[in-house]
Automatic annotation (TrEMBL):
Organism listed in the record: Polymorphospora rubra
Ranges where the CBM6 domain occurs: 682-807
Keywords, ordered alphabetically: Hydrolase, Signal
Designated name of the protein: Glycosyl hydrolase
SMART domains: CBD_IV, PKD, RICIN
Length: 938
């Protein structure tokens, strides 16, 4: 998703008198809890087929919702919950780029104009841009604001496109696109843009790298702090009828001002990913992500913090020099990335000096303004915000309209409240404003979902919310579009849930539909009405339908309660084209890794219609996961290969970061399948557990990252998932104890699962005095499991656990496929068990002939061992299966480069002739670097 890791920076423009710390704000006299029963959450669309990877939404005058997916797809969901793809535009999708925001012209009823912000493909090279060099011109691209017209049937008229504005982009590296669109009451268009800067080599502080041979994408001074650049800004323009634009009065720099861009309304942002304009006041609300330094360094700058900002007039919000309330502690130092020398603090009050050689704008910038609400970092978090990652998303301001005839509009009590949302923490919080504009009481809005990606009030006064779900750079079954209606205690509409099996396949296709999960909140009996998308219908709750003709069909279920209220859900069925099956053979789900590792991968794709798979169309992407979101870092094409997981230079060791490997294939019929495996870092903080029993988390200065798991008593536990411990040999835990000490056990599957290892925790004399204890891991399971750390000891408090580390070695007991050239599997020909049967490669199929078990130095399948015929040593010697005999002809040693060495001969397992065709034999050959000698073992 198009968001930075967990923090935000870039102070917002607010009046000094309105800058407060929310922790100090007390509830106003009129505050009252929000009654959940007064609202109904209506599911309008759900799942990948209906929302894709959800990015942005805009509500049309007829209450239908336009929403975008990063891959360039634009969808429309009508008020009844029927979703259709209305258009697709080609996009460049490296890292966070792709299709971002969507906005609806205020005069849509007359002109049917909508605006999209996206990355056009251009001629940008594939892959990653170089980190160092002298010529980066090939990677210079743009993100484009374009206007389109919707046809009468609401399809996107791609031929109507008019380019309004191009924003420069340094492509081929991450991060920060921004891309939100909104309008004020005068019809001016606002566009948020990110700093387009890589944050991963700055230790979590300001990326201001001025080394002359460095990719410019590591220096945010060229963008956010550049008065002559459109990035890291809130832009304000007036779009003319012909698609050109003019500059409204009152922007930060008057037209004609040297070394400035007149489009800039506000500057100094890092990634203002979500913003909204209160049309009643013209004030702009911004959620700006910040960097991830775990602690303040007086020689570098502050610990990471994020901000909600309320912009009441043009100004500079500080990034990459100033954050928060712009105190000395919250200000960055000049830093020489070549020498590591620290310089003076930047002058936030007088205006920072931008002395980067990449700066094309003014040298002395406007003074930095303070944040409206800051949280995370040394400032702490408002209690009402709770805990979790810091990922602010600025939602809308509600304005009550007594003349609006809608019966589901929000009540007047919400008038003027700013609806702040949080992606990672998963909340929606209306914030009251005090008379001076400072934040007052923070309420909690009742909703059920995962991660708020975008939100807006519609013409009906209802709140619309786009939920990202739980995927990493792709949608999943939790991705959804919701509408929140205010009912005030009236009859609540029923909820419809529609599923179908199968969702795709050859014609004719018989599909079983289900309404399971549909319900009436008041418990009334429902009636059912299905429309199958081809004109046929059914009133059965769970009908079966056979589609004879090829095509894509939207089947719609409408349920009705006794009072006549309805709920609708739909499901898309593809007939004549089966969705591809994508299997990640390696890395394994939950596999242990360290940042800096090069991780081999193998992917198997099957598609009935495509037949032989073109591996150049198979893509593996590495996403850096952080808490509940992630950043796409790099990708490569192929059924096998390797990706290097870069050392992360933004987060400290205490951050909850991990690796996500995403395999993707789109078939000839346009159906795309993603499969993801999460990899776990060898070193992890105990407080990042997924579930627990009995324990609590405590702040502690001597703990890594300042937090530890404590209040541990006999029988308590913490758990993490997924984990694959098949190559773990030992573990170390960082612990303290002023209690009675005890034992840590590593278990698989459950708190009472098999004990894989134990370590004894001594009394250290103080809860702040840490030591390390170590235990051996024995007989770990070959597959993926849930890791449990269980705690035992005497009565009372036992010990605290700060962090733990696994040490890995060569896996000795894994079972599964051995995957090699072009993603093909090592296969015993015809599944025969006779001694001397040839071993070959073949399309992976999961049969016993392809299921190998590593036992010591042997590789076993079908009860026989992988064997060098006659213990030969010559190139081309046959590889076969043979009764296991313990000789050197059956010894195989995995090498760090992915080859499989027979130590006796000194030669490697090799696919004959580098031929990836099914049934190609394997033989012995001099070890080399070719792909035909690279193997991924279970």
């Amino acid at each position: 998703m198009s968001i930075s890791r967990g923090r935000a920076t870039g102070a917002a423009l607010v009046l000094a008198a309105a800058t407060v710390l929310v922790q100090a704000a007390g509830p106003p006299a009129g505050a009252h809890p929000i009654n959940a029963t007064d609202f109904q959450q209506v599911t309008l669309a759900r799942g990948v087929a209906e929302v894709g990877e959800p990015m942005s939404l805009a509500v049309l005058p007829d209450r239908s919702v336009l929403h975008t997916a990063r891959n360039g797809t634009v969808r429309r969901t009508d008020a009844a919950g029927t979703t259709t793809v209305i258009g697709t535009i080609p996009v460049y999708t490296h890292d966070e780029e792709g299709l971002q925001g969507i906005g609806v012209d205020p005069n849509f009823a007359a002109n049917r104009h909508v605006f999209l912000y996206y990355a056009p493909p251009l001629s940008t090279p594939g892959g990653d841009a170089p980190i160092t060099g002298t010529d980066f011109s090939a990677w210079q691209g743009v993100n484009r604001l374009a206007r389109f017209t919707l046809n009468a049937d609401f399809t996107l008229n791609t031929g109507s496109q008019v380019t309004v504005l191009d924003v420069p982009a340094d492509r081929g590296l991450c991060c920060h696109v921004g891309g939100d669109i909104d309008f004020d009451a005068a019809g001016n268009l606002y566009l948020s843009t990110g700093d387009d800067t890589n944050p991963f080599d700055s230790a979590g502080y300001a990326p201001i790298d001025e080394r002359t041979n460095r990719n410019p994408g590591y220096d945010a001074q060229r963008t956010s702090a550049n008065t002559n650049d459109l990035r890291g800004k809130i832009l304000r323009i007036r779009v003319n009828a012909n698609g050109t634009y003019s500059i409204p009065a009152g922007n930060l720099f008057a037209p004609g001002t040297a070394r400035t861009r007149p489009e800039i309304y506000a500057m100094g942002f890092r990634n203002p990913f979500r913003m909204s304009v209160d049309r009643a006041t013209g004030h702009v609300y911004v959620g700006d992500y910040g960097p991830d330094a775990g602690s303040t360094n007086p020689n570098r700058g502050p610990s990471g913090q994020v901000e909600f900002n309320r912009i009441t007039s043009p100004g500079n919000y500080g990034w990459p020099y100033c954050t928060g309330t712009n105190t000395a502690t919250e200000t960055y130092n000049e830093w020489d990335f070549a020498t590591g020398a620290s310089g003076p603090k930047y002058d936030c009050a007088g205006g920072p000096t931008n002395n980067s050689f990449r700066n094309t704008g003014l040298t002395t910038l406007p003074p930095a303004r303070a944040a409206w609400i800051r949280y995370g970092g040394d400032a702490g978090t408002p209690p009402a915000f709770g805990g979790g990652s810091e990922s602010p998303m600025a939602g809308p301001v509600y304005r009550y309209d007594a003349a609006n005839p809608s019966t589901t509009k929000f009540p007047q009590s919400f008038d003027g409240q700013f609806f702040a949302t949080e992606l990672g923490r998963g909340w929606i919080k209306p914030i009251h404003l005090n008379a001076d504009g400072s934040p007052g009481t923070i309420d909690s809005f009742p909703w059920v979902g995962k991660q708020v990606m975008d939100s807006a009030f519609g013409p009906d006064g209802a709140l619309y919310v786009l939920d990202y779900g739980t995927g990493y750079f792709n949608g999943d079954e939790n991705s959804a579009l919701y509408r929140f209606d205010h009912l005030g205690g009236g009859n609540r509409a029923p909820t419809a849930v529609a599923t179908a099996t199968p969702l795709s396949g050859p014609a004719p296709l018989t599909v079983s539909f289900s309404s399971a999960g549909s319900a009436d909140p008041e418990g009334g009996a429902l009636t059912y009405a299905w429309g199958f998308g081809d004109g046929s219908t059914s009133t059965a709750a769970n009908p079966t339908k056979t589609y004879a003709a090829r095509g894509t069909y939207t089947a719609t279920l409408t349920v009705r309660d006794p009072q006549g209220a309805t709920g609708t859900a739909s499901v898309t069925v593809s007939v004549g084209n089966t969705a591809p099956t994508v299997t990640i053979n390696s890395p394994r789900s939950g596999q242990l890794f360290s940042f800096g590792d090069t991780v081999p991968f193998s992917i198997t794709v099957a598609d009935p219609e495509d037949g032989a798979i073109d591996c150049s169309k198979v893509k593996m992407t590495y996403v850096l996961g952080h808490d509940s979101h992630g950043h796409q870092i790099t990708s490569t094409n192929g059924c096998s290969g390797s990706l290097t997981v870069p050392n992360d230079g933004e987060h400290d060791d205490a951050a909850n970061i991990f690796a996500v490997f995403d395999a993707e294939y789109t078939d000839a019929g346009g159906l795309t399948t993603h499969t993801q495996h999460i990899l776990q870092p060898r070193h992890r903080q105990a407080e990042h557990h997924k579930t627990s029993s009995g324990v609590n988390t405590f702040a502690k200065a001597t703990a890594e990252g300042g937090r530890t798991v404590g209040d541990i008593h006999n029988g308590d536990w913490i758990a993490f998932e997924p984990y694959n411990l098949s190559n773990a040999t030992s573990f170390t835990a960082r612990v303290s104890s002023a209690g009675v000490g005890g034992t840590i056990s590593v278990r698989a599957g459950s708190p009472t699962g098999t004990v894989l290892g134990t370590a004894t925790v001594p009394v250290t004399g103080s809860w702040d005095t840490f030591t390390e204890v170590t235990g051996t891991i024995a007989n770990p399971p070959a597959g993926t499991t849930t890791l449990h750390l269980t705690f035992a000891g005497g009565s009372g408090a036992l010990f605290d656990v700060d962090a733990f580390t696994f040490v890995t070695g060569t896996t000795s007991g894994g079972t599964g496929p051995v995957v090699g050239l072009a993603g093909k599997c090592l296969d015993v020909r015809s599944g025969a068990t006779a001694d001397g049967t040839q071993v070959q490669i073949y399309t992976c199929n999961g049969t016993a002939a392809q299921t190998w078990t590593r036992n010591g130095q042997t590789m076993r399948a079908l009860g026989k061992c992988l064997d060098v015929s006659g213990a030969g040593t010559a190139n081309g010697t046959k590889i076969q299966v043979w009764t296991c005999n313990g000789t050197g002809a059956q010894a195989w040693s995995p090498q760090a480069d992915g080859t499989l060495l027979n130590p006796v001969s000194g030669k490697c397992l090799d696919v004959s002739g580098n031929n990836s065709a099914d049934s190609t034999p394997v033989h012995l050959w001099t070890c080399g670097t070719g792909a035909n000698q690279k193997w991924t073992l279970p």
